[in-house]
Amino acid sequence: MKRILIRFISTIGVMMALGIGAVIALTQYYHSHNVFPLGVMINDLYCTGMTVEEAAKVFDASYDLHKDKFIVRTLDGDLHELPFDEFGITVSYEPAVAEYMQRYNRSPFQWIEDVLGISKPVAFLYPPYDSTTVFPTYYWDRSLIETKLSEADWLNENLYDNKKTVSIVKSAAAGYILVDETKDLLVREAAIELICNQIVSQLSGPKHNLTETNFIDLSTGKFKEICYQNIPYTNQMKDTLSKWEGVSEFQNFHMTYQFGDREEKIDANIVADWMALDENGNIVFDENNVPVLDETIIKEYVAYLSATYNTVGIEREFQATSGDIVKVPGGSYGNEIDENAEYEFLLNAFLNKQSGTRVPEYTSEAWEKGSNDIGDTYIEVDMGDQHMYYYADGEIVIDTPVVTGNTSRRWDTPAKVCYVYFKQRNRVLRGANYATPVKYWMAVDGHIGIHDATWRSDFGGEIYKTNGSHGCINTPFEIMTELYDMVELGTPVIMFY
Questions:
Q1: Half-sphere exposure of 156 toward its Cβ, with a 13 Å CA cutoff?
Q2: How does DSSP classify residue 190?
Q3: Edge to edge, what strands does the sheet with 422-430 contain?
Q4: What is the rounded CA–CA span in Å between residue 463 and residue 173?
Q5: Is it the case that residue 274 has pLDDT exceeding 80?
Q6: Do residues 337 and 305 lie in contact, with contact meaning Cβ atoms separated by under 8 Å?
Q7: With 90 as the cut, is the pLDDT of residue 459 above it?
């Protein structure tokens, strides 16, 4: 038993001696070859057996110099990127990796404590090993950064100089506008210097891993005060500002004209054209720097409203009862703006600064004011089919054959859109060679009207071609007795072939 114990102890002693020898040999190897010992991970890279230069080379190669960048925000809110590679900024991990190697150079057996978890929990017995993080050292050429910034378009716009002006300019859609070039002008040299200082400060600060967006904001606070300045107003600029007050007040007038389902807005863009101009196209001001009104332009604007929204005499597309879309020539029916009344209204409203909403006055008014001025209550005379319909609120109330003007004698009933402008009971219709009494008379266009024709026994068909009227719409008596009371003055009458 004693022999066995002695052998066991001897074996243990030999194994310990061998282990210690191996540890000493490994330590001597790591130290003499200046490589990282067992269990070293840096930035998630297993570095055992690697030199400082070898590890740093791997880290340097993995660094994306284009992805890392500075971002500069200017006063206009735009963001401008400064990628490291484009501005000559480089990195090296060697100083940081070398500094970490000093840990093992100062204490060659430190790696044993690390593996055993004595100094930190990276023990071989508890994989995976923890990774030590190191950060790169940044290198730059300030003169190169300044040169690149000086070439940037965004640092060469809206610069501080003595050529800036204050002017009143006609815009495309907002009337006259004030263009003040004196505000928030970029002091280029100051901006470049500040940006360079910020870049250098961040790159040379405490060792850390710069983020992908290293922000330099020139739009607020102290940085704005350094990079942007205003030019003091000259006397000429002050005079322009005074005139602008008059122009601005002039353009404040607004009016909305309503035409049924359509409207026309008078805004700054319209009112701007009401200002009188001299021979050079410049606004004329009075002694108080108030723009002078050109009244003829207001008349022209009212004429524009008439040309756009008057419907008297215009050709219309009309959906007939048959389902066909027919084009009907214009007649007496429609809306016609009273231009004199509207000119006076607009002039007085403008001079008294009375903005608002306006329904124009008319010399002639249709049943409706919108794009469809006929509406859904009207008389339809289909002369090709010799049929007449009366629609009330969109529903057919009267449906009857009729006889229109004799086409063989050129007494054709004209195709047009007109309206019932007169009604009379027991009227005698007179012509060159006739005097015909009727019970019901509805005048629609000059001497042409809708009336009963008791002398006829038949209506419709092709009677009108050889035995038609002198132009009127002959209607069965029993129909006229109903129609006469139904139809109001002003009711549209659409006549077509």
A1: 7
A2: H
A3: 422-430, 435-445, 448-452, 473-475
A4: 60
A5: yes
A6: yes
A7: yes
Strands (E) located in 41-158: 41-42, 45-46, 69-73, 79-83, 90-92, 137-139
Residues linked to residue 51 through DSSP beta bridges, in sequence order: 35
Tokens of 191: 């901006």
For helices 142-150 and 188-203, angle between their N-to-C axes, nearest 10 degrees: 140
Residue 126, pLDDT score: 40
Q: Is the pLDDT of residue 16 over 80?
A: no
Residue from 341, 337, 339 nearest 300 by CA: 339
The rounded distance, in Å, linking the Cα atoms of 258 and 184 is 43
Mean pLDDT for the stretch of residues 327-351 = 97
Per DSSP, the residues of 368-414 read --SS--STT-EEEEETTTTEEEEEETTEEEEEEE-B-B-TTTT-PPP
Give the Cα-Cα-Cα angle 120, 122, 127 (nearest 5 degrees): 155
What separation in angstroms does the CA of 288 have from each of 291, 338, 471, 492? 9, 35, 66, 54
Alpha carbon 413 to chain centroid, angstroms = 53
DSSP state of 139: E
Report whether 66 contacts 88 (CB < 8 A): no
- Return the residue matching tokens 């020139």: 218
In this structure, how many other beta carbons lie within 10 angstroms of the beta carbon of residue 177? 17
Strand partners, 80: 72
Lowest mean pLDDT among 32-36, 215-219, 338-342: 32-36
Comparing 112 with 390, the larger pLDDT belongs to: 390
* Residue 238, both tokens: 């002050």
- Intra-chain end-to-end CA distance of the chain, in Å: 137
- Hey, what domains does the chain have and what are their CATH numbers? 237-313+334-363 (3.10.20.800), 378-496 (2.40.440.10)
Sort strands 316-319 and 325-328 into parallel, antiparallel or unpaired. Answer: antiparallel
Residue (of 373, 360, 461, 460) closest to 417 by Cα position: 373
Beta bridge partners of 41: 46
Residue 370 contacts residue 260 (beta carbons within 8 Å): yes
Enter the tokens of residue 242: 């005074």
**CA angle (100, 106, 107) in 5-degree steps:** 100
Whole-angstrom distance, CA of residue 309 vs CA of residue 486: 30
Q: Are residues 445 and 413 in contact, defined by beta-carbon separation less than 8 angstroms?
A: no
Residue 422's DSSP bridge partners are: 443
Structure tokens at 64: 């994306």
Q: Are strands 435-445 and 422-430 parallel, antiparallel or unpaired?
A: antiparallel
